[in-house]
Amino acid sequence: MKYSFVSHLFCPKCEKTYDTKEQHQLCSCGSPLLVDYHWDQIKENLKREDLLTREPSLWRYHELLPVEDSNNVVSLGEGMTPLISMPTLGKDMSVENLFMKDEGLVPTGTFKARGAAVGVSKAKEIGVKELAMPTNGNAGAAWALYAARAGINSTIVMPVDAPVITRNEVASSGAKLYLVNGLISDAGKIVAKAVKDNNLYDASTLKEPYRIEGKKTMGLEIAEQMGWKMPDVILYPTGGGVGLIGIYKALKELKSLGWVEGKLPRLVAVQASNCAPIVKAWEEKKTESEFWQDSSTLAFGINVPKALGDFLVLDAIYQTDGCAIAIDDQSMVEEQEKISRLEGAFICPEGASTFVAIRRLRESGWIKEGETVVALNTGAGIKYPDTVKVEVPMLEKEASIYEDHKDLVK
Amino acid sequence: MKYSFVSHLFCPKCEKTYDTKEQHQLCSCGSPLLVDYHWDQIKENLKREDLLTREPSLWRYHELLPVEDSNNVVSLGEGMTPLISMPTLGKDMSVENLFMKDEGLVPTGTFKARGAAVGVSKAKEIGVKELAMPTNGNAGAAWALYAARAGINSTIVMPVDAPVITRNEVASSGAKLYLVNGLISDAGKIVAKAVKDNNLYDASTLKEPYRIEGKKTMGLEIAEQMGWKMPDVILYPTGGGVGLIGIYKALKELKSLGWVEGKLPRLVAVQASNCAPIVKAWEEKKTESEFWQDSSTLAFGINVPKALGDFLVLDAIYQTDGCAIAIDDQSMVEEQEKISRLEGAFICPEGASTFVAIRRLRESGWIKEGETVVALNTGAGIKYPDTVKVEVPMLEKEASIYEDHKDLVK
Hints:
Two copies of one chain form a homodimer.
Chain A: E1 6-10, E2 17-18, E3 34-37, H1 39-45, E4 83-85, H2 87-92, E5 97-102, H3 112-125, E6 130-134, H4 138-150, E7 153-159, H5 164-172, E8 176-180, H6 184-198, E9 201-202, H7 211-225, E10 233-237, H8 242-257, E11 266-272, H9 277-283, H10 310-319, E12 323-327, H11 329-343, H12 349-363, E13 372-377, E14 394-395
Parallel strand pairs in A: 5-13, 6-7, 6-9, 7-8, 10-11, 10-13, 11-12
Antiparallel strand pairs in A: 1-2, 1-3, 4-5
Helix pairs in contact in A: 3-4, 3-7, 4-5, 7-8, 11-12
């Protein structure tokens, strides 16, 4: 049987199509391209039950992924992350059925590994030898490492303020790494020029069509892990928004296969108060966002002033009766600590922002009593060492700890 | 059907037995206690094939774990980590069949989550309200977070030199955290006193019997993931050695169930050159180790000058015709970078030490041509931000990158 039922690339704006055997970036009209599949053949050859005994990685869905030869799969075991029940936190915010999809449990510690695994595998399949990309850190780390495994050279440009740990990951992979004294949008301009000057494969967000396919596996997994019953609401911390676009694509694909039924979950884009272009566009009922001036947030992964796929994110929100909401940094950090204390999960501030959003949306009544809610935690808290401030008592050897010292310590 | 077929605790030194329904620490003779099961009942009620459709977490082996009521399971989705093929690195060291079990892909980013998940779950089952433990960082982070999820209070004491990120994890869990101006052995003394003075549950390595059961799931998973064919050699970075003890216990249990056949894999304890008490004991053919004076290594997790379970580690090595080997810090760091460049896996220095060991043991002929070798990577490289030193060129906005700049950058 065929490993993949991929058929072609298509433009969601002008409907032009492209061949998946060739290297393509954006459509000639400037829009990102999406991947389509032979749905009739998938229906004929694959049943939900076939998945039951497959390996717990995103490659369990290989028929619905673009890599045609399994020998081109570049994997470090990514995917099938846990969907964790959050009963104590849920009680605290009056959301009885609260779940977290924990994307901290993947190679490189963030969900970026999904896009990198599928994107790099397909790049290998179509003969890419050298790629380049701008990054806020985590995507660059993932792509550089998967590219190293694939034997593909990479050039990565990141803002000087991006987390140092991601700098180390990129450097250790042997990639060519540059810092830029600016934002990811500045890094993007430098990469665009480098791509043109040196004829590189542009792996920038949505400038290659396959990263979305990796991200869509989050949606496939949520559906499978919930026993093919869709939740009422899915929240996603939104920078470039590829994960949300991917989840929406996945759910539509599952519906067309007849594997899930009924109304799609309401999709919620969660952004940072000081970088909320999607929220602003949604509030103004627009179909595209505007560049957000002087953006800043400690949730570095969602500091994206203007996303190339903004129109796809907004479409996903409108089509599912979802919404967009902005959360301030202070609330994220407070929620992050609450999640640790109540559920033992040390997550990233981006992930924490989705839980603040749930709290607010439940208070406002937008999330109703008894609804099932899934929050995406996009990365491990350990990638953000500076978000927790601690003062710890220091003991000398042979010291004693008594219970009545309790109040001295955090 | 019963969730667990646990029968009792027993002492591997004096053979005294204890009830698993009560709280026990060490045997009255001072030895750690081990857990035993009703093997005949397991044989009757569970087949290897039953596992095929179970969730990808260590709880898939619940019949072989000590928690009797599934309601007591405290899980963050730990276990069933990937067993990754390392073909390029393998070629580089003439080991054709080289695999890495990647324990970076668990909550808290290290294999310590396994011991914490099972240990805390059982602690909850037997009514523990407050626990205490010394730690080099990662174990404390895992136990504090799982305890938080279980609603159990914890007191954690760690050396001031332990990784700061683990300090933040513990603090964010709401645990009582203390630093000590000394080594883990000094932290251990303080905890022993605190346990006695305040009547706490002692969760120190091997002072409670259930952590091993969590760690043994690494052995169960390796066997299952290799299709129930055992590898020739398994290497493990050894500090307290619980993982190695656990893997040995798992493989013996699988053999008694008839799920695996033939000779057990040769187990290799890998230590740091400046903290190698097990290696010294093995070289001197002793059954116990001596306290290692002035130990130091950047692989903080294996800086354990004297392990309580040293005799069990040495027994596992002797019984399987294994060996023990010490690796210097510089070689670990070099291997860590090589693994990143060749395989795209950014692992911790402890994990890297096992690959250096494979290289050396293959050179010496101890590992033979064609043998299948599994290395345990015990944690994610992102928990050790300081092991990679990078110098990165800084660009101004609007800068250009040309290929001929290649030689300027790493």
